[in-house]
Amino acid sequence: MNNPYRKDFPFFSNEKDKDIIYFDNAATTQRPHHVMDAIKHFYDENNANPLRGLYDLSVRATDAYENARHTVAQFIGAKEDCEIIFTRNATESLNLVAYSYGMSFIGAGDEIAVSIMEHHSNILPWQMVCKAKGAKLVYMECSKETGELPLDEVRAKISPKTKLVAITQVSN
Which of 3.40.50.2300, 3.40.50.1370, 3.40.640.10, 3.30.450.20 would CATH assign to domain 90-166? Predict the structure, then answer.
């Protein structure tokens, strides 16, 4: 495999894993050297609860945390740093959206649309919201030939009752 970025990831440098193509990144992802170095530096130099204390170590941890938030905001083009939240993984993020937005704004008779190619972490929370709120979960079919979600299928499944569409960019 001749990809210039692979060398940055220690995982791909060992002989048995050098040809692996790793797509299961939503929950656990391989990390490049510079990320692991930054994590090690944090634990070596600033390991304390961010946003929780006024003592020097906590202030340093808070500064590091907020600097990371600012870097991510700039990288993805967020208007403000406060638009960025950190969670442990995609499952936790989806649960936060489902149980905060879903339980607050989905009502009886509403619909939530998901594709059939979703990971369970993007189906189960919506099933639970629909059950709790008396809403309906609508499934969009993907093409059996290509695995793609046709735009016509999306349009066909969205109705005036649809309050949320939750679809993945890439499915594993």
Answer: 3.40.640.10
